[in-house]
Design brief:
Blueprint (H helix, E strand, L loop, with lengths): L4 H11 L13 H4 L6 H9 L5 E3 L7 H10 L7 E3 L7 H13 L9 E3 L11 H14 L4 E3 L2
Parallel strand pairs: 1-2, 2-3, 3-4
Length: about 150
């Protein structure tokens, strides 16, 4: 396990919905066997709201950690997603677009995707980057992609 792994799991839990499969938040023992929530946990579950802004700026992650993070994101209320100055690259962009495609059952509120300072802005495979941007725009037509 890499030194960043506990923080990656913590961030993944923060950006995911408790109902989303794969979130460790949904694996609470009181939920696994169908037993009731203790009162304080019931209050916490009712108070939970999807995040509207996620800024993972200047984060350096391994590809497997990016995959876990991207898979965990709850897009249901997300308006701003930023990876500025991070190790987010073309492969992560492909994962992100695929993940958004998987959530295609509802209109996503995403307004801004921040990619300034990432390798996406200057990737030598610019045709692939443009293709991913095109795919994203077909799913989320009003998203502003900031990469310069």
């Amino acid at each position: 396990m890499s030194p960043s792994r506990p923080s990656v799991l913590w961030i993944s839990d923060m950006v995911s919905s408790p109902q989303r499969p794969g979130s460790s938040l949904s694996l609470h023992p009181s939920m696994q066997d169908g037993s009731f929530f203790p009162p304080h946990e019931l209050v916490e579950a009712r108070a939970w709201k999807s995040l509207t802004h996620i800024e993972l700026d200047s984060v350096r992650l391994q590809p497997k950690d990016w995959r876990g993070m991207i898979e965990a994101i709850d897009f249901s209320a997300l308006e701003l997603l930023s990876f500025e100055n991070s190790s987010f690259g073309l492969e992560e962009l492909k994962m992100l677009v695929d993940r958004i495609s998987d959530d295609g059952d509802f209109e996503l509120p995403l307004v801004t995707l921040g990619l300034q300072g990432t390798s996406v802005a200057w990737d030598s495979e610019m045709a692939d980057v443009c293709e991913q941007f095109r795919r994203l725009k077909t799913m989320v037509p009003f998203v502003e992609i900031q990469c310069i």
